[in-house]
Amino acid sequence: KWSKIIADAFQKWAKDVAINGRSNVPITQFDPTSFIESAFYEGGEAQLVELGKILGMGVKFDIRSPEAEDWIKQYAAKQIKYISDQQKAAIRQTKLRGFQDGLTIQQQRKLIKEHIGLLPNHIISVGNYKASLLKSGADPATADKLASKYRDKLLRYRANMIAETEGMAASNAGTTRANLDAIKRGIIKEDEYLEEIVASGLKNVCDKCNSFNGTQHKIGKGPVLQQRSAGGKVEG
Question: pTM for this structure?
Fold first, then answer.
C-alpha cells in the first residue's frame, strides 16, 4: 500500500518540477517524511493486532514514543539528503555535457527539466540512447519521443525503488517498535520471542536481503535495522 503511495507521490513531484519549474532551474527535494511516518505507525498498529491474537487479549497503547519519533526523524532526514545530493549530481552531469558538447544555457535548462528526478547514471543512459537514435538516422522528433519514453521507464524504476525501500523499511521499523514497546511495558517477555525475516517470494528483493530470509534474531537486533542505525545505505 505505502510503496504505491510513495511511488505515485515521487512521480508527481518529478512531473511538477519538470513542467512547472522556474526558468532558473530550481533544486528541489522530494520529502517522503509524511509517508514514512504513516507507514511506520500503520506497521506498528498491525503488529499490535497480531500480538493481541497471540496473547488472546486486546493490546492497545500509544506507539508514539520519543524513540519512535527519533527513528523517523533520523531516517527521513537521511533519505531527503540522499535525494538532494542526487539532484545536484544530475545538474552537474548536465552542466558537464554543456561544457563538453557546447550546449547552450537554454538547451541545458531543457535537459535538466526533462531529467530531474532521475539518477545521474540514468541521465547518461537517456542521453546516450537519444544520441544513438540520431546517429542511426532517426529524425529529432522521433528521437525525442523515444528518449522520453525511456526516461519515463527509468523514472518509474527509481520511484518504485524508493517506494519499496521507504515503505517497507518504515513499516518493518514500526513493527519492531511495537514489539520493543510491548517488552518495555511487560506485555511480552523478551526471552520468549524472536523476530524472523521474511524475504522469500517478494519482488525486487536483492541477494543480500534474500540471504537473511528465515533468519531469526532478538527483537530490534536484525541486520538491516542495525545497518540503518549505523548509517548504512540499503536503498537500491
Answer: 0.64
